[in-house]
Amino acid sequence: MPNPPGNPQRKATPAPASMRSTATTSAQSTGAYVRGGVLVVRDGASLPDRCIRCKAPAADGRVTKRFAYNEDESGPGMGTFVPIVGRLFWITWLFNRLNTREYLTVSYCICTKHRTIKWLAIAAMTIGMIAGTIATVMGFANSGKSPANPRGEIDSTTIIIGVLIFFAAALCGLAISGLKVASGTTNVAELTGAGKPFLESLPKFSKTAAMPRY
Ligand SMILES: [Zn+2]
Predict the structure, then answer these.
(1) By residue range, what is the domain housing residue 193?
(2) 201 Cα to the center of ligand 1, angstroms
């Protein structure tokens, strides 16, 4: 989506310092608040200069991320249970879903420590999944008849270890923290993945409060 000329909040660059000092105390100027333990942001929100995980000052770790989400998460519906026709339903639903995707851009900070943890977790996940795959393949390769294995016994130990390593690594991947869209409507989305200290520093709105208008 092109940047409309009259909408400077879409720019990736952080707001001037004079604006940011007020941004940490006002929901209206950051475009973010906390509701029921989740971060609610509007498009173009610029979160305070604090790590989203631990609230440590992290002005130099500012990143701008574009989140894609769908307003309708209800899925393709019962029609997909009908053979063949169901496929068409599903394909139609998928195309429609891609067409109706919404995007919003949020600028936030993450400290060096939490950035490092994230990259280590990604590295551990990648290496673990590769190692697990190799071990599984080796297990199957060992299962064939060979001089070392004349009866062609299945090397189940290596296969099981390989599969376990693979899934353990995949679970590491789930633990990788980052902001994710939980739900969204036009220009406003609920994000999960922010740390409790950070959430507690943001303005709160009660669950019954109406969504503020921007
Ligand atoms: Zn941090």
Answers:
(1) 30-52+59-109+178-206
(2) 14
Q: Would 7 be classed as within a structural domain?
A: no
Distance 83 CA to ligand 1 centre (A): 50
Return the pLDDT at 178: 80
At 11, list the tokens.
């720019």
Which segments of the chain have a pLDDT < 50?
1-4, 6-13, 15-29, 207-210, 213-214
**Measured in Å, how far apart are the chain's first and last C-alpha atoms?**
20
Q: Do 185 and 156 fall into the same domain?
A: no
Domain count, the chain: 2
Tell me how far the alpha carbon of residue 112 lies from the centroid of ligand 1, in angstroms: 7
Q: What is the pLDDT of residue 49?
A: 92
Radius of gyration (Cα) for the chain, nearest Å?
Answer: 23
84 C-alpha to ligand 1 centroid (Å): 50
> Within a domain: residue 136?
yes
